[in-house]
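@channel sequence for tomorrow's demo:
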Amino acid sequence: MRIEIWSDIVCPFCTIGKAELDKALAAFPHADEVTIVPRSFELQPGGSAVEPVAEHLAVKYGWSPAQVAAQCDRIDARAAGLGLRYDWRAAIAAPTLDAHRLVKLAATVGLARKVETALMLAHFSEGRDVSDHGVLAEVAVGAGLDANRVAEVLASDEYADAVRADQAEAAALGVRGVPFFVVDGRFGVSGAQSAETFGEALARAWSLTHPIVDLGVQGTGPACGPDGCS
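structure tokens (generated this afternoon):
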């Protein structure tokens, strides 16, 4: 089973949604046959503003400081249930193209999920500016990427086309918000669902893509049922 996940590095519900999916996968009997593929989605494509999340939300939605705090505290409470901490008071809203480009680099060496998770937590829990090249390099190298390759990518526009291609595909699919999960190219799940909901979706998708096939074997062999064996 292949699960593609469109998300942004600075999207709090993306961090939570992925943690809920991981929780569901921990209880999924076919988890070792599941491949996770990170896909890029910029919440502010072409943006350049770097500002505290609290200020960003207040301007974007016209919220008062009390409304910002109430919304972010609810997110933090849900994160806490997953063993995470959303430090929204320190979190910084920033452009994420370069962060996504490093995830694309990581995909070439099998480290996409690890690097993406490290970058998301740097924003979500550590209040780090994930548009800053120094921060990006430190986090990416700490997650296992080669320092020289990271420097080369950050000094160029390498993988930018791959990021834009992900976003074009998302638009073609009608994706307007993230996280968005696509299972085996056929089934979509939108938003940071609960682990239970993800578990149900995984089971249903598996049953539809891996149906039991009648092999056409004739005759009756020994079997057991509620009333005994014969």
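heads up for whoever presents: The radius of gyration is 21 Å.
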